[in-house]
Every structure is written in C-alpha cells, then in structure tokens.
Amino acid sequence: MSAGEPRANPWRRLWRAAGPRATRGQLLAGVLCAALGFGVVVQVRQTNVSGLADLRESDLVRILDDTTDRGDRLAGEVQDLETTRRELTEGSDQAQAAAAAASARAQQYGVLAGTLPAHGPGVVATVTDPSGALRSTNFIQLVQELRDSGAEAIQIGSTRVVAQTAFTDGSGGVLVDGRLERSPYVVSVIGDPSTLATAMDIPGGVRETLRSAGADLAVARAPGEDGVRVTALHAVSAPQYARPASPRP
Amino acid sequence: MIAAVGLVVGVVVGVLLHPEVPVALQPYLPIAVVAALDAVFGGLRAVLDGIFDDRVFVVSFASNAVVAALIVYLGDQLGVGSQLSTGVVVVLGVRIFSNVAAIRRHLFNA
Fold this sequence. Notes:
Chain A: Belongs to the UPF0749 family. Chain A: Pfam families: DUF881. The complex is a heterodimer. Chain A has a domain at 118-230: 2-Layer Sandwich (Alpha-Beta Plaits), CATH 3.30.70. Helices cover 49% and strands 18% of the residues of chain A. Chain A has 6 helices and 10 strands; from the N terminus they run αααββαββββββααββ. Chain A has helices at 8-18, 24-49, 57-113, 136-148, 193-200, 206-212; strands spanning 118-120, 122-128, 153-156, 159-161, 167-170, 173-176, 179-181, 185-190, 216-222, 228-230. In chain A, the strands form 3 sheets. In chain A, strands 4-3-8-2-9 form a 5-stranded antiparallel sheet, covered by helices on one side. In chain A, strands 5-6-7 form a 3-stranded antiparallel sheet, with helices on one face. A two-stranded antiparallel sheet of chain A has the order 1-10. Chain B has one domain (23-108). The interface between A and B is large, with 40 and 47 residues.
C-alpha cells in the first residue's frame, strides 16, 4: 500500500471482509476455521494426556535408554546403601559384643583388684587372740596360705585384702592397710571351702602357728552360692608413674 | 465473521466431544494444525492486501495441512521424522511470523 492511503482503509477492508455474507468463500472459510479450532483443541488435549503412545520410535528408544541409565544408577545407589547399612549393623553388633566383653572383664578385674563387692562359696575364719600376741607376720602367713589354696577374695575385719595390702603391728591389734583391726579377727574368704579349710589344718601350718602363739582359729565353711560376702572395697589410686604399654610386636 | 464463528464452533465441539486421536495420526496432527494456522494467517494477510480469494484459501489450507503431514510421514519412513518435523515447524513458524508482520503493518502502519 502507498504512504498516502488513509489509515482507516485496512480496518474498513477488514470490517467489510468480516461482515456476515453468505458467500461460498465465507462459508468455506468458516468450515475450515472450525476444523482448525477443532484440531487445535484436540491436539492440546492430546498433548496434555498423551503418555508414550504417540511418541516416535527414536524418542521411545531415547526414553528407554534414559530410563535404563537411571535404573542402573539407582540400582548402584541401592547397592551402596545396602553395603553401608550392613556395615553399620555389623559394626554396632561388634561394638555391642566388645562393650559386653569389656564390661565382663572389668567386673573380673574389679573383683581381683578389690574395687567390687563379691559373694560366693568360701569360709569364714575367726581368729581370737585374747592375749594380743599375734603379729603382722601371722596374718601375712594366713593370707599367704589362703592365696595358695585358691582364695579369690579376702576380707579381714572391714578391710579388703588385695595385692598391695600391708600388715603392720599396731597397739592392741594389727594395722591392715593402716586400719586397726582387733580380736576377734573375722576373715571372710571366697574360694573352694574344703580346700581352704584343709589348708588351715596342714601340720605345721597356720592353725598350729596361731595356737602356739596363744590364739585360736575357728573355720566355718559356707559352701552355698551366697555363702560368703566380701563387701569391703579397696580404693584404687591412679598410678602415678606406670603407664599402660602396648605389647611389643 | 463467519470464520471467527467457525473457529469458536470448532473449539466448542472439540471441548465437548474430546475425541481420541487415532494412533496412526498422532504424529501428524500437530504439524497439520501448525500448517493450517499458517494458511489462516496467510488468508488474513490476503484480505488486508485485497487479494483474498476463497478458492486459493481453501486450497492453500488443505494443501498446507496435507503436505506438512506428508513430509513428516515421509520423514518417519526415512528415519528422520523428528528432525524433519522440526524443520517443517521452523519453516511454518517463519511464514507465520512474516504474515503477522505484514498484517501488523497494514493495521497499525508499524
């Protein structure tokens, strides 16, 4: 169109074309536009609902490849996670077993070191010394004899006897680890009752030594599980110089 | 006017009936729709140019749709269907843009 043409011209032309005239061209255009609208709507709906059915073979192959890759990746991930889970459960099982073993060992050591109360079959030996003639050596001999015959926990009076226990002569009694014990001395021992009782009666042994010193020894066997209770505890101080060393390879 | 009414009628019929597209036609309907759109914009431009001819419009509409679908069908048979349909859509899109630009120049002088 030329520059001098009035601007309203194309609008008028459009309006004239849009005017309802029942010409064959108008009807055909209407029918075709109806077909177009129909096609657009159908295609839009189809696009919204379409799944894989209307895809081309190459697209399907690509999607299948993608899905397979993704499946492989996820399967690998599953494997990794299962491995991790297995390691974690096994690890916790091992940790639990180790903790149980450690606690059992700690209890054994506690009984041996005198830091835990103990009970079990054994004997209760009562040493009566009315004249106060017994010396610390007599008790060292007594404890030595008890240990030789398998005593596992020993208590004299209210003092636990452990490896470091010292016996000292005191006035009116014997100092056991610095604590004064007086007659009658009640010695609670956990071990095999008959072996312990027999050990006391060895000729030239503890009983005869005590008797020659003017004291008397009475041994009461307590064979039951709750026969003897050793409840006195030994206070363990942390070692000042000694450090645990790993064994040399 | 009748064309606009027809468009609305087609949309309404499509919404009400929501028919299933046959599987064999599914790859070709979108291309045919784009080709028909191109024909419609071409017709609109012809109206504004004052050279609209109903016979030309009908023939171009039908041939556009059929040829576009045929090209894609041929491409599918040759194994380049997706590339060829992309090419057809690009060409038709360029034509639609140029037609719309001509219409815009007619109506707004811009």
